[in-house]
Amino acid sequence: MPENEEVKLLGLWASPFSRRIEMALKLKGIKYDYVEENLANKSSLLLALNPIHKKIMSVGFVSMAKADEKGRDVLAEQARELIMYLEKELVGKDYFGGKSVGFLDLVAGSLIPFCLERGWEGIGLEVTTEEKFPEYKRWVKNLEKVEIVRDCIPPRKEHVEHMNNVTQRVRSS
């Protein structure tokens, strides 16, 4: 990338998608300007970069938020089955690639422990336990020790509150 090119990261503090890009930029040592977006009042730059839909899609957590208790239990079990794949892959490793943080750590880490789990916590679901997922939980603790990850993780209390607000908006729509 030419040195005179400017990188702008348009993001939302609670978004795992912009958080993972921020982690990757920091990991690669690429300087960038972070621009916090307000999705209720999108900037002209954001709209110009997404001219077809002029909206940001939200995925993943919406099904869980809309479901009744029985549906949530089914979705939680499906999530556990998927996280078990991660659990098995992490046996004997600090990170997915071994001893150092890589792309899969940033992708999975920004979404599962530092976003979805906080949403699950807000609606009272315990999807991942230390007993059932010891390798996964160890990996999360390892991620929390990495400065570039730690710097990009939204504050837990505010994030859980944000996810609760998302849940309320989804349920009322």
Automatic annotation (TrEMBL):
Per the record, the major location class is cytoplasm
Residue span(s) of domain GST C-terminal: 38-166
Keywords from the named record: Cytoplasm, Detoxification, Transferase
Looking up Gene3D superfamilies in the UniProt record yields: 1.20.1050.10, Glutaredoxin
A GO biological-process term:
glutathione metabolic process
Q: What is its EC number?
A: 2.5.1.18
GO cellular component terms listed in the entry, alphabetical order = cytosol
List, alphabetically, the InterPro entries matched.
Answer: Glutathione-S-Trfase_C-like, Glutathione-S-Trfase_C_sf, Glutathione_S-Trfase_N, GST_C, GST_C_Tau, Omega/Tau-like, Thioredoxin-like_sf
All copies of domain GST N-terminal, residue ranges: 5-94
UniProt cross-references to SUPFAM superfamilies, sorted A to Z: GST C-terminal domain-like (SSF47616), Thioredoxin-like (SSF52833)
Instruction: Tell me the domain of life.
Output: Eukaryota
Reaction(s) catalysed (UniProt annotation): RX + glutathione = an S-substituted glutathione + a halide anion + H(+)
Q: Which Pfam families match?
A: GST_C, GST_N_2
Q: Which GO terms describe its molecular function?
A: glutathione transferase activity
Compartments annotated for it: namely: Cytoplasm, Cytosol
**Sequence similarity:** Belongs to the GST superfamily. Tau family.
Q: What name has this protein been given in UniProt?
A: glutathione transferase
